[in-house]
Amino acid sequence: MAIGNAIEAYNLPQGVITHLFRDIAAHRPGHLTKVGLGTFVDPRFGGGKINARTTEDLVELVTIGGEEALFYKASR
């Protein structure tokens, strides 16, 4: 279904998803990490989106203290 554009689909690192669930439960805005920089989940390389139907950006590239990191948003 994801390949055929029938549904929205994201591919995020499993460890990040685990931490993101914890952050969602704690009512935090999301999870900040360097995991995924320079990979398919980096917004410069697709942001983890699987198909054209998937348009919402769940991953944001941020710079903190002069270093790049990825912010995985907790809510839509």
What is the element layout, followed by pairings?
Layout: H1 14-25, E1 30-33, E2 59-64, E3 67-73
Antiparallel strand pairs: 1-3, 2-3
Structure description:
The protein has 1 helix and 3 strands; from the N terminus they run H-E-E-E. It has one helix spanning 14-25, and strands spanning 30-33, 59-64, 67-73. A hairpin with a 2-residue loop joins strand 2 (59-64) and strand 3. The longest helix is centred in the first third of the chain and has 12 residues, at 14-25.
Q: Give the overall average pLDDT.
A: 96
The total beta strand count reads: 3
- What can be said about the biggest beta sheet? 3 strands, antiparallel
Helical content (DSSP H or I, runs of 4+)? 10-25%
Shape: globular
Q: Kindly report how far apart the N and C termini lie.
A: 22 Å
Q: Which class best fits the helix and strand makeup? A: alpha+beta
Strand order within the widest beta sheet: 1-3-2
The residue ranges in which pLDDT falls below 50 over 5 or more consecutive positions are none
- Compressed to H and E, one letter per element, the order equals HEEE
- Tally of helical runs: 1
Compute the gyration radius: what is it? 13 Å
Q: Strand content of the residues, in percent?
A: 15-25%
